[in-house]
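FW: tagging you since you asked about this chain on Friday. Here's the raw sequence from the shared folder, copied in full. Didn't touch anything.
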Amino acid sequence: KHYLTLHPSWMYQLLRPFWGGQIGSDAIDPWLRFTELAPPPLPDGVTLPHRFVAVKFYYRYTFPQNPQTQAFVQESVRRIAPKYPVVLLDWDGHVDDHGNIAVRDLPNVTRMSTLLPSVPPERAIAMEAAILARSMGFVGTYGGLAHLALRFRRPVVSYYWEWQGVTFVHRTLSEQLALQMGTSFHCLRVMDLIMLQDVMPRV
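HL: got it, structure written out here
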């Protein structure tokens, strides 16, 4: 078989009406084929817990920087850690407008920045992906890492504060991707959790 290498701009041009909300997913389905991604290799000498939850909270349009989001992040990690080991996908670098949210040290929590103390920026996402692919699932801000977790067939619990600065079709595509990957996807508004806790039975 012969294949052509195409510039990504062709894909962006094809999908632009979908991202802009002019067409629905049915119009682009014939052009898309989602496949499970192979886990990237871990660097030699890096040891992860046998079973763990990958966690990353970061600021973005839908998850703004304020005391409430900071407190929510800390409490989320505090509640996960007694049940499952947590690996925080943090690293000491900054390459875009998504600032990491600092989490205080807690028992049963390991930091990527400790496992890989000198990750260059061009390798950071690959290392996050390598850890994410070996996790039980992802918890954190709704965004690109949530999408990536689904491509590794990992369940996702993601959060947003207010839906702003991003089109809703991104979330629609995440739902579709989760169904095709045979895994679960949850995207929850932080302020709705109080209502959910009031009405949902304990299992």
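FW: Helices lie at 8-19, 25-28, 67-80, 112-115, 121-133, 144-151, 169-181, 193-199.
HL: agreed, and The CA atoms of residues 130 and 157 lie 19 Å apart.
FW: great, closing this out.
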